[in-house]
Structures are given as C-alpha cells and as structure tokens.
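Give me structure tokens for this 246-residue protein.
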Amino acid sequence: MEPILELKKLCYSYHTPEGEVKALNDISFRLMPGEFISIVGPSGCGKSTLLSLITGLLTPESGTLSVKTNAAMGYMLQRDNLFEWRTVYSNILLGLEIQKKLTKDYIQPVDKMIEDYGLSQFKSSRPSQLSGGMRQRAALIRTLALKPDILLLDEPFSALDYQTRLEVSDDIGKIIKSEGKTAILVTHDISEAISMGDRVIILSRRPGTIKKIIPVQVSIDDRTPFSTRFTPEFKDIFNEVWKELN
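Here you go.
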C-alpha cells in the first residue's frame, strides 16, 4: 500500500527583522490510508507549523512533501468558528456553499452524519444553544462535508473542560474511524495522543525534530479512544512518551 502523505527531511525557518528562527528540521514520516497519527511536543516546537506545511499554507525551505494525487485535506482548528448569525445546519453547509457544492451527492452524507451523531434536533438552533461538545461535532461534520482524504486536527479539544474533552475526543475518534478517514492530530495532551492515535510522533524542542515514533498497540479489539485508556499497555506507552518529552 502506498502512503497518502510522505515527508522527507522537511525543514522550515521563520524570517523576522531580528533574524532567522529555525522551526522544523529534518522531519520525515509516512502516513498510510486510514491511519491516525498523533503529534506531541513542547510549546513552540513547530507542531502547528508542520500542519501548515502539509496543507500548503507554508512552503518548505528544503526537503520534500508528497501527497497522493488529488488527495483533499480538511482542517479542524482549535475553535469551532461557528457563526452565530447562521443556524447549525447552515454553518455545517458553509464550506459546501463557498465551494458551490450544494448538491445531492454532498448534502445526503451530511444529513446522515447529522442524524447519526445526534445533531438532527438542533439543525435550526444557533451555535450558542449547543454545548461545547455538540459545537465540536458540528465543526467536524462541516469539515467532513467536503469529503477530505486527510483530516488535520490542530488541538480541536483544547477549549473544552476536562470531562467534555474526554467525551468529545472519544466521539470524534469514533466518527473518524467509522468514516474511514486518515488523520493527523496535534495535541499537548499525552493521554489524548495515545488514546486516539495509531502512532505517536514526538517532536523535540525548537527546532522541532522527530525524537521518536511510538506505535500504539493495545490488547483489545475494536478499540476506542476511551477504552484505550484502560488497557494494560496504556500506562507503559504514556511513560515512554513522557520520558522522551522530558
């Protein structure tokens, strides 16, 4: 099977009036179709910069970044960015509206996701009437509406309280798996990275380099983010990631 995304010796620096700031150095990894990769590292190590390079918002200084032909990307940010003057449903359809894709082929899967993931009775509501978890579900469906091949998640749960964060990360992890999406998650939360990811990529302090890539292998079938946290292997993987970060 060919990778859907491959990075080889990727480097990037920011240029400011004070001089050059090296953000990322020699980043290499492959992302396979259907795989979920988590990326952790200290603040300022270049995690969000890496996502910007993958989406093409930034151009690498050196190295190569290869994306499978015609592979589309969806980007889910830290905040849901739902517009209060639009209903939940019209917020979800916003990307399709902008890209002039309000067709049956796109709208039918959206309506099914809204039904499957518990938002059907809130279609006519305003975002302020939803809980934080429901808002994130709406934001995810809006991202999935455009049928991305690769889903990029930039700390999408960071604004939620701890209990809601656990619930929503579990929900969204299940949704991503059920929709068969390939995903990359950037997070500061080690437990979240392990529970959601198939592999955890650990970045060093700036300039970010890959210190280690740790596979998440647990002894349960049909794992979910929540159930992964209670496996015997979880503690050992957590300690290994913690050791590399410190």
